[in-house]
Design goal:
The structure holds three protein chains of three kinds. By secondary structure, chain A is α/β, with parallel strands linked by helices. Helices cover 29% and strands 27% of the residues of chain A. In chain A, strand 10, helix 5 and strand 11 form a beta-alpha-beta unit. Chain B has five helices and nine strands, in the order αααβαββαββββββ. By secondary structure, chain B is α+β, with helices and mostly antiparallel strands. The radius of gyration of chain B is 15 Å and the shape is globular. The longest helix of chain B has 7 residues. Chain C has one domain: Roll (Ubiquitin-like (UB roll)). In chain C, the strands form two sheets. Chain C has a five-stranded mixed beta sheet with strand order 2-1-7-5-6, with helices on one face. A two-stranded antiparallel sheet of chain C has the order 3-4. The longest helix of chain C has 7 residues. Classes of the chains: A alpha/beta, B alpha+beta, C mainly beta. Chains in contact: A-B, A-C, B-C. At the B-C interface, loops of B face loops of C.
Chain lengths: 362, 163, 101
Amino acid sequence: MRETEVLIIGGGPAGLCAAVSALESGASVTILERNRRLGGQLVKQTHMFFGSKEQYASFRGIDIPAILLEKLEKYGDKLRVETDCTALGIYEDGVVTALFGEERYVKYLPKAIVVATGASEKALAFENNDLPGIYGAGAVQTLMNVYGVKPGNKVLMVGAGNIGLIVSYQLMQAGVEVVAVLDAAPKIGGYCVHASKIRRAGVPILVSHTVTRALGDKTLEGAIVCEMDEKFNVIEGTEKRYDCDVMCISVGLTPLTELLGMAGCEMKYVPELSGIVPARNKAYMTSRDGIFVAGDVSGIEEASAAMVEGYLAGLHCAAYAGYKSENFAQKVEDLEGQLAKLRGGPSGAHILRGIQKNVKED
Amino acid sequence: MLIKTGVPTEEQVKEVFPPIERINKGRVAVAECFQRIPCNPCEYSCVKKAICVGEDINNTPNVDFEKCSGCGVCLTKCPGLAIMLVDGSKSAESVEFSVPYEFMPLPTVGEEISVVNRSGEVITRGVVSEVLNAKSFDRTPIVRFVVAREFLYAARYLKREVK
Amino acid sequence: MRIEEHPILTFERGKELTFYLDGEEMKGYEGETIQAAIHANKVKLLGYSSELKRPRGFYCAIGNCSSCMMTVDGVANVKTCTTLLKEGMRVETQKDKGVLR
């Protein structure tokens, strides 16, 4: 049994920021990260981030882990980072089990936990949607930007949210043709600046369109695309064939909440937060004392917001473990102010409605 | 319509364009950021304090064309790559555009390129006049190209043959 | 299918490795996953679903979805999207649930 004051599950943007503020508060911290390196999905975000100075706006996502790791460096032995280590369960007695690599089980007994496990990509239902060549947009981003491998030659992007638009741009940067970006909704869901950027580079964006069938025997060779009416019904006679050897599905993310569900935390379906999320209070604590959440696991949002939530959850979690930071109230106020600014626009309003449904008054 | 196609309307574009008198004086920024999103690096990266977003970072930016020196720092800091420079000071017949260009290979000075509008359609040919790629640009190079003046409001980007 | 020139990234590839996909010799690099190496060799088909025998490729590339499972050095159901490539690895497309050894 390993003891640690604060255990952070997930070393992505939210988890790393939670570690920074928990350490700053004086707690000892262990980070469990499933991957071989820290940074979560930041490691493939080659584009510049939005937001403001405090959330490293204008920095490329790929460069942000190094900034956060530098902040962690000075804490020496107070911090343990375990990579290639998957948390498997949080038990009734507060014990967390984890698997190192494929074989070695370890148990942790933390005073408090931050679950920052992030999200996974959703799939889309249509005929032949399981053909090889049909990939999550984020998966293609990993293949290209982490491993330097092109997914194919001609890509059809399904989904015009920020991920769909950004990955389309990144495909072009890798020298891959994007034949079109589709979205079933009647308007572009991602930021218009991303849309304009790929549109002027020659990629058509088709709203009120969906893919109804993938073509190909063993791998993808094309797709049938149809127009949709305002009730999301396919309009007959609008079928059009696109030749493509890759289709990227970018229809949103869903929180990775398995650990929380198994731990018996109260879960809620909140569409604005993109699925089933843990109910939490204003201090980011779930219905189970000592289990905190931050980032996409408690609602899908931009990485900038995940980082601020991470800082907040780290502060609250450390306080719960007996290390209330100096100027605690002021720090919380400042960070909550940052979140309010990030959520001050139309996309933020949507998130705020979800949070209102999910966050309990103390 | 911007929200359906990614292409801003002519009215939207003209609204954020500097007056022609200012363009004829030299390089000046045009920020094509029409949607409320949480972002303000253009404001704090501008050394001349010529771009204002304000307390609410979801506001769209406002460029003070008289304060703007056309230095181009904002082009490389805008995460949406939504800012460009226009310059009508060098000739009565042509205008020069400066755009952030994050594709490989970079064009070379003197190269003839296709110039596209906001829909990505080729509208004319242009000539690359300068390619800047300072370390401080952090991998967002700036490409300058010259086109006939009649394309001032239509030209937006360049297109090269992808090998 | 490898990106040689990129405006933002430089790819520092490790030592060249040889591996075998269903007996066919292929090259990959140290530090990359099995799935990335296979994809770089222009192969998208990684196996077949156990019930309906439908062709399978990867989907998430980060270890969430299990769509990329293959038999590696005799071990079935290896997530090839998160498992690193090693010299001499024998990778096989899997047609059923696999056998525990």
